[in-house]
Protein 1
Amino acid sequence: MPTVLITGCGRGLGLEFVRQYAADQWRVIATAREPQATPELAALGGNVRVCALDVTDFAAVQALAHELREEPIDLLVSNAALARMNPPFGSTDYPTMRRIVETNAIAPLHLAEAFVEHVARSELRAMAFISSRMGSTTLNTTGGAYAYRASKAALNSLVRTMAMDLRERHITVLALHPGWAKTEPGARVEVDESVRGMRRVIHRASAHETGSFYMFNDTVLPW
Ligand SMILES: NC(=O)c1ccc[n+]([C@@H]2O[C@H](COP(=O)([O-])OP(=O)(O)OC[C@H]3O[C@@H](n4cnc5c(N)ncnc54)[C@H](OP(=O)(O)O)[C@@H]3O)[C@@H](O)[C@H]2O)c1
């Protein structure tokens, strides 16, 4: 049975990743800041192991990596993130911007470094980083959302760099855009459809596509 570790599983797309992999009989390590706030996680049962994890708590990430040191992890899904905040130019809230960049870019790199050995010794050897179209520099024609855009653009750069560095270890590293999924008001894409699509991309992507940026519907996005 393959194993997936997912961050930010208390709600939204992270919780849906857990539901879908658990339904497919994967072993799921579901991490969330406050797992007790999501009773559904514990109720999913046998093959889902629930762990409390704030991804910006590096000591906690290292402790979990150590606790799981014997376990191969086929797929690491770095999903946890702080959503966009949109103070306009001239009103940037710098403490918040630092937290967003730390959560959305720095913490995913640290997560990958903490779990690379677990992934390297698995069968699938894949890491998926949930990014955003808002991190695409090419597609930015509307401005705004400074902190969120910068954090996801930084994540995209980190994904590309990790992909190059981890190629020789046969680890496939992808950046994925979920579409505008219905965890947000006004969005268009059903959450289960978004996650099903991203999983399809992860499982069909071949090693030579490492370092790519895909949308949930399998189209390539420009950086
Ligand atoms: N929904 C969309 O349309 C959309 C579009 C583009 C990209 N994305 C990306 O898709 C991913 C999931 O988004 P979503 O819509 O499901 O967002 P969401 O509903 O806001 O969920 C985000 C999750 O991340 C967790 N989180 C935040 N900071 C964390 C930390 N320091 N440590 C651990 N967990 C933390 C949250 O935990 P708490 O419950 O404890 O707050 C929550 O479970 C994110 O990377 C997001 O940027 C979403």
Protein 2
Amino acid sequence: MTAYFYPLNNVIQDYAWGSYSSLNTLFGMANPENKPQAEIWMGAHPNGCSTILVDGQETLLSDFINKDMAAVIGAKTAETFGELPYLFKVLCAEKALSVQVHPSKAQAEAGFAKEEAAGIPLTASVRNYKDPNHKPELVYALTSYTAMNGFRDYAEILAFFHQLNIDVLSELIANLDANQNEQGLSAFFEALLSLEGEQKEQAVNELLAFAADNQTDELFALLLTLSEQYPGDIGLFSPLILNTLTLQPGEAMFLDACTPHAYIKGTGLEIMANSDNVLRAGLTPKHMDVEELVACTRCVPMPKDTILLSPSSDASGKGNVKLYPIPVPDFNFGVYQQTENERLHTTSAEILMAIDAPMTVSHANGETVTLQKGESVFVPAFVGEYSVTCSGSFARAFN
Ligand SMILES: [Zn+2]
């Protein structure tokens, strides 16, 4: 008999910025080795592939998919992507992750081809493009979740820097003042990130002195916290340049290609396309290729009121479903609340995760699987119609 529902056994990635307690607090998951549990990976990525039981045998999800790809992820997805096109995560940031930009699909294809042709090894620290794919991301907050996303308005950036009045930056500021447009912001961003040696040190020191005098202001208090995590880093200026916001649980935002962003603190669900292409822009000890970064960055302000996503309900118009608008074909994402035999229909492979209560997934043939909060299940494309009952909320990833 073919099983329809495959509970996932997921890899937990320990990264230095991860949280020691968040998975335990939210899902009751143990942390016996006391590791910084940064991410749970739900998917078939080679660097951390989930496993499932097939006929009692522990099997890599990627092997299960590859055995009969058109049936498992759907013929259209198999043809377009040749793999499960998304990676679904729980992400627990205790410390800030680097400020970063992901290239567009066209930039990734060109950049990957160029570095391959130049013979730069995939593992080299100066390698920018690990694959030819874009990396759109969506984050859905499970706790209060502080992040940066997109450039602030020109006037806002200028107001901060006029207030700081840092000597070594006066020429940069004057240029931005005179050129409040994409070229002006691009030049400012590049010049700031390119500061080196004494100039950089002086600029960061003056910034921190100002922050220390103004720490009753939330933004400058945050800046001081970041400076403990990344002392002397030029990325400490980024909260003054980028929109800095705190999502409340249940709020979500999309991270566009070519748009600088950073996750600062909090736990959330994240879904992304399969790619490792990251161009760093500060808050990192790793390699920064400022020229390539700026070439891949759209230096235009992102209005604050466009950052949070407005979900729509499904076609039935019921209020218990939030489906998020995603501008790329790689994934879709929805959150369902208090469902009683909610009928769902696969058009691709799906991953469901129980967020805050147990959930039961059932098929008309009688097969049933129950998940506890924090647990997830893989539903192949061939399943067709199935139903879910959940007294709390669950997330649904598909494409
Ligand atoms: Zn990112």
